[in-house]
Structures are given as structure tokens and as C-alpha cells.
Amino acid sequence: MKQTLSQSWKFLTSKLHKPLPLNHRESQKLLNLLSDSFKRNFDREFPPGLADTDHSPDDHFQSLLKSPLLSVNRIRRSSTLDRKMDIKQDAAQVRDLVFAVKQPAESFRQRVATGAANMASAKLALDNQMKKALASASVDAKDSIRASEMGSIMTNWLWSTGRCEDLKFFKDRDFVDRLMPFLVAEGQYKPIWEWLQRSQHIAAPSRNAGSLLHRDVGYFIKKLVQSEGLYGQGLQSAIQMFLTNLRSMAQQSPAPLQYTLSELNYPAGVYLIWLLVAQSTSSRVDESVIHGFDGSLESWVHRRLVACYRSLIQLLRPQQRASVQAAQLVSAIESCETQVTRKERLILIRVGLKAVEIFLANDSLKEAAQVMKTLQLRFGAELGIGSKPADHTRNDEDAALRSLNLLLAT
User: Fold this and answer.
1) Residue 78 and residue 86: Cα distance in Å, rounded?
2) What pTM was computed for the model?
């Protein structure tokens, strides 16, 4: 029983603690045993007198010495050289990165010359150049963007690589976002018009995989007018550019004309409406330009929303009385409220709220309350405020005035 417990204890302790190393006497004894065993096996395999035969002991030792396991120094030297090469490569990459940040235009030129340019490096170069332009304290951002010539560099690269044939770079919205400010700032309108003209022949309305879609062209046009307003000649020039492109498309677009023009121009047109209304007090746009823009609505806005958008534009004309403007807007909202889609209902709400802001800015409180009452009655569910019954009273306008701040915050 005692012997069994002792063995169990030794077994458990051997699991918990490694055995102690051999002492000198035990080590020498083990070495002698190994040496004697090796000599016996070696003499059996290589008897004396075989030095000149093919089965020579020297060949055996040479094969052992040439084993990769014994070439430790060579491996270490190779690893050291690899580390040095990695350090040199890392240093070169850091230098390239610094150069790309400090001189993005020249860096991209070099990549084009070596055939290493691609969409990722193009977007990086545009990003770095824009950051450099915005960070300059001594030079105006527009002047810095124009002086970089990045728009010309990108245009030449797009042509040289054949990307202007299928215009699929339109689909990369990140690239279009970065490219358009440079094209507009440099006045590179010729390639822009050529691309838009070409897009009329290759853009498709359906969602074919990989093909250029109408919505891609529509986004390109929106970025064009947006960049013209920010980096070009301003809002009036952006509207004139929109109208010029609209007329050009109307002459070339195949049937169904209304659907095609709407799909291509609606994003840019609506952007201009909101920008025009938002900057009504800070930007001077000729009455003739506003009139031309107003007259184009039927060609790119769905007929259900034409009257609504038109009544919003009419608010920019100070010669018209506020009461007439409010009545037109309310009539437009009420006439199409039951016919529009859910998305279009949100557009009507947004138009109404923007009109309220304009009336308040002009101290037309009664007209603001009138529009508020209409929004509350027609779109109470969307606004989360409920609606009043049809037999409303004179106090409706007072209630609308009291809830004005609530709706604007919503």
C-alpha cells in the first residue's frame, strides 16, 4: 500500500515539476554509453578497409555536415540581410508617401509615367492636393486648386487609359467627388461637355451589371453644378450651366424624353432649387435666370410636383405679395397631396417648412401660420403631431403659430 502511494506521488510530482539535470557522474556515464553504442553501430555499417569504396565513411560524414540543420550561421546571415532589405524597402515607402503628400501632382505624374497609376492612387492624389490647397494660408483655395493643374493631369490620364470610352469612372462617386472641383476651378469644361454628350449614347436606364446608368450621369451633373457654385463662377453660373446641359440633352435624348431628362437632371435641379432658396439673401441671381429656371421645371420634374416647386421659387420674387405666395403654395400642396408617393410626401413637407422659414424671415407671420396649418392637417402623421378635424375654427392659425417652433425643430 505504501509503495503504491509512493509511486503515485512520484508520478504526480513528475507532472508538476521537471526532473533535475544529471550530475557530473551520471552525465559521464550516459556519454560513455552513447559513445560505445555509436562505435558499435558505426563499425557494423562501415567495417575497416572501406575508405576507398563508394560506401566510404567520409561520404557519410560529409552528408551529415552538409545537412541544413547544421548551417546555422548561413541562416543567420540570410535573415540579417533580409531584415536590412526590409528596412530599406520600408524607408523607400515612407519617402514615397511623404512625396505623395507634399507633391501630390508630381507624384501622380511619376506613377502615370511608370504605369503604376490606378483609381486608388488617383483618388489619393486628389485628396492630398485638396488638403494642401485648403491648408494654405497665403493663397486662396480656388487659386491653389487651379494652379495645381490636377484637373488637366487627371483628364489626360483618363484619356490615355481609355476610361473616357465607356465612362465607367462615372460610377465611382468618390472619384467624381474629388475630380470635379479641380476640373471646374481650372475651367476644364470641354472634356466635361464631351463626356456628357457621349453619355447620352451609352447610359442605360436599367440596372445592368457594370453598365453606365442614368443615375450615374445624374450624379455627375449634380457634382458639376455643385462645384460650379463653390469653385467656379457661383450660383448663377451653375444655373445657367444646368439649363445649357438640359437644352443639349433635350435635343439628343431619345424617347421617352420626359423620363430620361427627369432621371438625368432631377438630382442637380432639386439641389439648385434648395441652394437658390437658401442663398436668396446672399447671392444675386438675375431675374431672367430665375425665370428661365422656373420655366424648365416641366421638363425634368414630375408633373405632380411642378406646382409645388414652382410656388417655392416664387417666394424669391419680392414684388409678389406674401399672401398670394402663401395661397399658391397651400393650393399646390393640397392639389397633389393625395396623388404623390410616400417619398414625395416628404418632399412636400420639406417645401412647406422651407416656405415657413422664408415667411418668418420676412416677418410674414400670418402667412407662415397658414402654411403651418396646412402641414398639420395634411401631414400630421409624418410630423408626429396629429391632425385637426375638418371643421377647424378661427383658432387654427393661432394654434399653428404656437406650434411653429416645434415643427421647424422637427
Assistant:
1) 12
2) 0.69
